[in-house]
Amino acid sequence: MSITTILSQLSQGMIISVEIFVLTLLFSLPLGLIVSFGRMSKNKILQQIVKIYIAIMRGTPLMLQLMAIYFAPYYLFGLKITTQYRFTAVIIAFSINYAAYFAEIYRGGIESMPIGQYEAAKILGYNKGQTFFKIILPQVIKRILPSITNETITLVKDTSLAMVISVAEMFTIAQRISARETSMFPLVIAGIFYFIFNYIVAFIMEFIEKKYRYYEG
Q: Which structural domain range is residue 204 located in?
């Protein structure tokens, strides 16, 4: 098999990996913020429910969660599992898993804000919503960006776990080609792709961090 053919097949898997990455961030980042509100809620019942959810998501393997989400419709409702549902199950599992991690990152950032910020906003006539979204959240984002960056880089590598429910992302395709051709070369190329992917993500996150530097001090 020529290198051109290998690259062509791997690029198809790379598109799937990028889709998993982008969709997971698209859903998990806002969901994580919502979950963090529940975690900090004064309602003790809601707070405990969210704490249990976070504990389960962070305390069990993502691989197990993928399988649970994928097979749940069949075992709970007797529904037939379709091939199309595989990708949906991946996005659901990844999103609720990463939302739990992002929720704790958000919570740490929000709770680290000085009370004086809220008091100053109140004096200026801001309501609670305006205070949070216009004053608190931008500063929180600046503080949590390094932690968010670490999680996004981990997400790039975690996309390979989609193979558990037979979603053909890049690493899965590389394994198949490697086994068929009895060569490590496809896996090496896949490793290079992951490195480039991570480098691009790190570059973008660093650019965003620079944009938020005006909140320092």
A: 3-215
